[in-house]
Write a structure and sequence with these properties.
Shape: globular
Strand content: 5-15%
Number of strands: 11
Distance between the termini: 34 Å
Structural class: alpha/beta
Strand order of the largest sheet: 3-2-1-4-5-6-10
Helix content: 40-55%
Radius of gyration: 19 Å
């Protein structure tokens, strides 16, 4: 049994912490507010951007999982101090720093996204994520820390709620047979990373030194458009067919006046206006984790939402 620290308890942090606990490890979760303890999971309240306090909380950990994210509209100001604290903690404790990343750093590209593509983000959120990873990678190459990044596409599955494009704004409506609004082109192929597969990849690379010192893409099922995913959800739920309508630009513009989240989505709108496909063959050639079959993803997601809505 090993001891691990998970920073952040959003969908990915919660899934990772619970997977580690299921495998018999002790887990300490760090969040600003803390939570009631769970079996084999201790919750600690502290600001993870405080490197000294985070290092103390992570003493004795085999790995520190970076699964936290500042509020979307504060990324450029809040990510640098958080990243600095995470790197300082990895250096002070010797724990492997396992970073959950996304695909913003590549910017708009033609064709599937591979780890070999240049990090050529054009927007501020993409650039700050690039800087976070490059800082950790530089320290790794200097021998001061051990670091690895796992990059996922948009989350899908049990536990994904307000931040998911196939979650709170979609699944409850599908279960009621109501029309769904989609960001961008609803027929553009898109990769959806299943949340348990994200957690599985994070845990796997933490314990395999062959993974360290580079970024990896989460094993992800072949791309499906938003319309295809809604059709699959509706068919499994026996509520279909469900209409899928593109969200009009005018509506998006008005909504952005009141919602910082929607306002910030303009930077990454390209991901939904054109094919956005992840290539995870490098990971699959080296490690054991594989994407969960899509039919299982659909069933588990609907079951989770039914239970959530019933509660």
């Amino acid at each position: 049994m090993s001891h691990y620290v998970v920073v952040g308890f959003g969908p990915a942090g919660a899934a990772t912490a619970r997977l580690l606990a299921e495998r018999g490890h002790s887990v300490r979760v760090v969040t600003r507010s803390g939570r009631s303890p769970e079996p084999d999971i201790e919750h600690v309240a502290l600001d993870a951007a405080d490197g000294e306090r985070l290092s103390a909380a992570a003493r004795g950990a085999a790995a520190v999982f970076s699964c936290a994210a500042p509020p979307y509209h504060r990324w450029t100001s809040a990510w640098p101090p958080l990243a600095a604290a995470l790197c300082a903690t990895a250096e002070a404790t010797g724990a492997v720093l396992v970073m959950l990343g996304n695909l913003y750093g590549y910017g708009p590209v033609d064709g599937p996204l591979t780890e070999e593509l240049p990090l050529a983000a054009t927007g501020p959120k993409g650039r700050v994520r690039v800087a976070v990873w490059e800082r950790a990678l530089a320290l790794h190459e200097q021998g001061r820390i051990r670091a690895v990044e796992v990059r996922a596409s948009d989350f899908f599955g049990p536990g994904v709620t307000d931040g998911g494009h196939l979650a709170a704004r979609v699944v409850p409506r599908v279960l009621r047979g109501k029309p769904v609004s989609a960001l961008g082109d609803p027929d553009a192929p898109h990769s959806w990373s299943y949340l348990p597969d994200v957690a599985g990849a994070l845990v796997e690379v933490a314990g395999d030194e062959r993974a360290w010192g580079r970024a990896w893409h989460v094993p992800t099922e072949p791309p499906r458009s938003t319309r295809e995913m809604v059709d699959l959800l509706a068919a499994r739920a026996a509520t279909g067919p469900v209409a899928v309508r593109p969200l009009p630009s005018a509506v998006l513009g008005v909504a952005s006046l009141f919602s910082p989240l929607i306002r910030e989505l303009k930077e990454v709108r390209y991901q939904f206006d054109r094919p956005f496909v992840i290539d995870a063959r490098a990971y699959e050639a080296r490690f054991a984790q594989r994407a969960t079959p899509l039919d299982e993803q659909i069933g588990a997601t609907l079951d989770w939402w039914r239970a959530r809505l019933a509660a």
